[in-house]
Amino acid sequence: MLKLEEINKTYHTDKIETIALKDINLTVKKGEFISIMGPSGCGKSTLLNIMGLLDAPTEGQIKISGAVIESYDDKNVAQLRNQKIGFIFQSFHLIQDLRVIDNVELPLLYRKMSAKERRRLANQALERVGLKARTDHFPAQLSGGQQQRVAIARAIVGKPDLLLADEPTGNLDSHMGNEIMQILESLNKDDGTTIVMVTHDDELAQRTERIVRVYDGQLIH
């Protein structure tokens, strides 16, 4: 599904060079559910952003479904992200002025499909996360756990092959966090979705198939 080869990422300012990632080699198989762990500032989120083509590596090669990413041209990469990858963030990133159903439909606006089909897929995604009755609510009317479920519905509405989750339970209590984890596990086992999750929670990480540990921008084996 995803292969990173000799990935390096360096950030430059006028006076400082910061090495965020160094010599990363990682393969994620189709249908895997892996977690990425490590201390704050170690490069976990940078690694996830590169996996999701939100950031380009300074050096190295990325392959998605066997195809090498040759260009990081905004239009080409945006189209690939929209078709292949779903994102879940710690802070939900819902648009407060839009209803739940409209938030979930957003990724589909960039695809050639009818409004009726967009609505059908959005309702289907919301039913998948147990929020069919909340379609006309606004984010502010929902609990944190419900907002994260809306964010998951938005991430899966386009049926992506790869789901990237950056601390998806970080802003939730343990009960709500467990609910979100159960949804992710179901998406992986029942739908075959490949999932990469960054987490600080060791108990949640232990529920995934494999734990990848990052320290000072390098993978620890």
Describe this entry's structure for a reader.
With 221 residues, the protein is α/β, with parallel strands linked by helices. It has a 6-stranded mixed beta sheet with strand order 6-7-8-3-9-10. Strand 1 and strand 2 form a beta hairpin. The model has no long low-confidence stretch (mean pLDDT 91). It is built from 7 helices and 10 strands. The chain has a single domain, classed as 3-Layer(aba) Sandwich (Rossmann fold), CATH 3.40.50.300.
Strand elements, count: 10
The side-by-side strand order for the widest beta sheet comes to 6-7-8-3-9-10
The CATH class assignment is Alpha Beta
Q: Supply the helix-strand structural class.
A: alpha/beta
Along the chain, the helix and strand elements come as EEEHEEHEHHHEHEHEE
Shape: globular
Instruction: Please tell me the overall pLDDT.
Output: 91
Beta-strand residue percentage:
25-35%
List keywords for this structure.
globular; six-stranded mixed sheet; 7 helices; 221 residues; alpha/beta; 27% strand
Give the topology.
Elements: E1 2-12, E2 17-28, E3 33-37, H1 44-51, E4 59-64, E5 67-68, H2 74-84, E6 85-88, H3 100-105, H4 115-128, H5 144-156, E7 162-166, H6 174-191, E8 194-198, H7 202-205, E9 210-215, E10 218-220
Parallel strand pairs: 3-8, 3-9, 6-7, 7-8
Antiparallel strand pairs: 1-2, 1-4, 4-5, 9-10
Helix pairs in contact: 4-5, 5-6
Short description:
The protein has 221 residues and is an alpha/beta fold.
